[in-house]
TrEMBL record:
<feature type="compositionally biased region" description="Basic and acidic residues">
    <location>
        <begin position="51"/>
        <end position="68"/>
    </location>
</feature>
<feature type="compositionally biased region" description="Basic and acidic residues">
    <location>
        <begin position="22"/>
        <end position="43"/>
    </location>
</feature>
<protein>
    <submittedName>
        <fullName>Uncharacterized protein</fullName>
    </submittedName>
</protein>
<feature type="region of interest" description="Disordered">
    <location>
        <begin position="1"/>
        <end position="68"/>
    </location>
</feature>
Length: 68
């Protein structure tokens, strides 16, 4: 029984290193965090058309200056 106690204590120590592999288990959640990054890509695409829309904006005030 006494030797079983140290083994049990050793098992308690195992959770420590076992936590390391659990970190690998945290990798999957990291992949779940990647989708949000992909979701952030569409907004970047929306940012592209924004500059195009911003082009006519500066042209408008410039046109007003020319009309003046």
């Amino acid at each position: 029984m006494l030797p079983c106690l140290p083994v049990n204590q050793r098992l308690g120590e195992h959770p420590g290193p076992s936590l390391e592999p659990k970190t690998n288990d945290h990798d999957p959640p990291s992949t779940e965090h990647e989708p949000p990054t992909t979701k952030h890509e569409p907004p970047a695409t929306e940012d592209e058309p924004t500059p195009t829309e911003h082009e006519p904006t500066p042209k408008e005030p410039a046109d007003e200056g020319g009309a003046k």
